[in-house]
Give the backbone structure.
Amino acid sequence: MPRRFHSYSGTVVVDGDADWGSCFYKEDTQQLYPVLSIVNLEKLYTKKAAHHLNLNIKVNDPKPTSISSIDLLEIIKTELQEHFKDITVLEIVNRVDWEKAMPIAVEDFVEATRSNQGLNNFYYAGDFMGCPSMETALMSGKRAAEQLIKNQR
């Protein structure tokens, strides 16, 4: 699953709110390159990241081939116009292509992991706890770190 940072101009509004942090979308399995999530980097970091988005895009091509950044930019421009009518995508600032993405934790796995939380001084966070967002993953990671520090004193 590729992760890409994009710059844009215009106003990005989600459900009438320009102060949003992230959006997650149900996968359109008919698309070759569906956007699964969009993160407003300014809200996650600082004003220094204003007018930048992080997109997670799944490749559904049965015969994946390397796609040029120019071709990918055109795909992204078209896709983002579906989500945000009032923006213009300017460029791909950073591109990371993962051959395989981290699997999404299923409920049984999360339940089993939670039942082992703290055993033998092992603490789990993030996707191991079924976290749906980076913010929640960070908070569960912070709690796990606090427990480790507490148990080492």
Observations:
- DSSP finds four helices and five strands in the chain.
